[in-house]
Amino acid sequence: MSIMQDFEESRKMIGAEKYDAIEKYLNEVCPKSNYDKYNKELNSLINIPSDEWLKKKEELEEKYGIIFLDDILYKTEEWDKFETWYNEKSKTYIIELWENNADRNDGFGQIEADDIKDLGQAIKKAKEIFETTECVSIEVQNYISREALYFRDKVNEKYFFVKENVKTEEEELNEPGE
After folding, report:
1. Nearest to residue 159, comparing CAs of 118, 119, 123?
2. Which residue of 57, 97, 145, 175 shows the fewest CB atoms closer than 10 Å?
3. What is the pLDDT of residues 19-78, one digit of tens each?
4. Residue 124 belongs to what H/E stretch?
5. CA angle centred on 174, ends 172 and 175, rounded to 5°
6. Residue 96 burial class via C-beta count within 10 angstroms: exposed 0-12, middle 13-18, buried 19 and up
7. Which residues contact 85 (CB under 8 A, 6 or more apart)?
8. Residue 84, SS3?
9. Residues 150, 123: contact at Cβ < 8 Å?
């Protein structure tokens, strides 16, 4: 089985949402700048013997906190760290806003606040942001799935609270301050 087939099989076993969350996790625990520094130093070691190169490679991975997708999939310790992160982040919320309809249509939202642990607090904060900025719409979303749990739009003057885990049911609110 090729590496890509192996990863696809893992994706099927884990589930698409959770598998895709691994990328978010990797970006948080090891930012791209760390990978860039790691690769730069690793590329400078091109003319050393292979056994020494492998040792230096491990040292650089430790130095920059490098974690790869296969580390999470195949190392119990790394999987457990991911599981802990995933369980915490699946219960957190972000607030995304759009300054105009073109941005909304093109998917150019701005994350205004993240890592909010309580849905009620996230909605309250979204309402405050919405009332004090010139944005045309705002959403409270689940951090992992990016599912909209609250939506407000100045253009259509609609206010929705989407019940968690019920994707088809939306309840229009009468007043934005409720």
Report:
1. 123
2. 175
3. 999 999 999 999 999 999 999 999 998 888 888 999 999 999 999 999 999 999 999 999
4. helix 119-132
5. 120
6. buried
7. 25, 28, 29
8. helix
9. yes
